[in-house]
Amino acid sequence: MSTVPLVTYEYSDGISTISMDDGKANVMSVEMVAGINAALDQAEGNGGVVIITGRDKMFSAGFDLGVFKSGDSEQTFSMLSGGARLSERLLSFPLPTFAACSGHAIAMGCFLLMSTDYRIGIEGDSKFAANEVAIGMTVPHFAIRALRQRLTPQQLNKAVNFAHYFSTQEAVQSGFLDELCSADQLTEVAKTRASDALKLDAAAHASSKLRLRETLLQEIARDIERDCEGWRAGS
User: Fold this and answer.
1) What CA–CA distance (Å, rounded) separates 87 from 89?
2) Residue spans of beta strands (DSSP E) within 66-158
3) I need a labelling partner for 1 at 20 to 30 A (CA). Which of 47, 77, 149, 152 fits?
């Protein structure tokens, strides 16, 4: 078994960088979610700002389909509920969060992306999708909520009901991403945006974020409870 961590954490000059890399698709397994949460704990302790990024050409392809296929109901519930709670945590995280989206963001990878405060993508052929209905799954309530806070009604309909794969240009126009840069500039641009955010008053940022998302956070908490009930029941 490999001892290479799925998530690495670095802190420098007020910036916490959380990097996901499982060597493949950066699936949101129980272990990956736990690693991100542990890194967020460190970041919260250090203060400053947070950058979350993935591996070359891949931010995250979503939940681990192998867990679904295993038939292990407890592992499946832990993975799904853990991903939902991670989305909720990021939406209310007290520090500014940036996604340096290094490639494709699919399903839970897309919901993770949409739960950060500012999202930078790379020019090229990356795809962004909530592809659940294309693979025989119902989009979770919490995921629809995470998408709705960013997308227009038209794009939300395409995303949820038709599993549309958005191109990078469509992703900016629709609200998945805030800006694009070249792949070799991604780290530099993300650090520049993060450094700018260090000039904000930390307490004012945290309280304003909670005020801005007060209704959203109340609704997503209820959504997660509904999803958890469904997952427990096996629906």
Assistant:
1) 5
2) 97-100, 103-106, 118-122, 128-129
3) 77
